[in-house]
Amino acid sequence: MEAVSIFFVFFIYIWVRLALGHHKTADMKDKKKYERGINLITDKKYEKAKEFFETKIKENPNSSVAWTYRAICHYHLGNTYQSIFDAQKSTSLESTIPESYLLLGKLYFELEDYQNACEEYEKAVWYYREQNIEALKYRGLCYYKLGNIEKAKFSFEKALQQGDEESNFYLLQIDRNQKYSY
Questions:
Q1: Is the pTM of this model over 0.70?
Q2: Which of 19, 24, 49, 165 has its CA 20 to 30 A from that of 1?
Q3: Which has the higher per-residue pLDDT, 3 or 119?
Q4: What is the structure's pLDDT at 24?
Q5: pLDDT: is 10 or 58 the higher one?
Q6: Whose CA is closest to 103, among 90, 87, 92, 91?
Q7: Distance between CA 126 and CA 56 in Å, rounded?
Q8: 64 touches 97 (CB < 8 A)
């Protein structure tokens, strides 16, 4: 009987916490608060979105979500180094936002800094729980550029399992290159 009453109290406690929103992280709450700016990015209104997030950063300089989305705006506006700065600031404030790592990976990849890109894609893959095709595919491309064919194939295969046909193309290229390199 004691076990049932303890379970019942525990169940009530969990239900109250969920009902009051205590299960939501600060980042989850920020994403909800910044929905207007995120929608501006979705609508490709990057300059307006950047202004929105600059205001939010002034209001709350410790919001890693605001830094991440401002970094995304800078990326689309062609401000590579400002985007890197903002994304790094975001990861220094909160290390579990995969969008920041994915963006840093893209930026380093475009700068042909494949080692750093690979490290950032590794973090993105980890925080996305291997469920983001883009992170898997680009991690594979980084490994390929670095000459680590086995890791590249592994990443492409993971992305292919999730339906990314482009990864299948890269796997075929690797197989063809290996076939003719002997």
A1: yes
A2: 19
A3: 119
A4: 47
A5: 58
A6: 87
A7: 28
A8: yes
Residue labelled with tokens 């705006």: 73
Count CB atoms within 10 A of the CB of residue 44: 8
Q: What is the CA radius of gyration of the chain?
A: 21
d(CA 75, CA 177): 33
Burial 145-170 (b: 16+ CB within 10 A, else e): eeeeeebbbebbebbbeeebeebeeb
Q: Which helix (H) or strand (E) holds 71?
A: helix 64-77
Alpha-carbon torsion 121, 123, 126, 128, what sign? negative
Exposed, middle or buried by CB within 10 Å (0-12, 13-18, 19+), for 103? Answer: buried
Give 9-52 pLDDT, tens digit per residue: 555 665 565 556 554 465 667 778 899 999 999 999 999 999 99
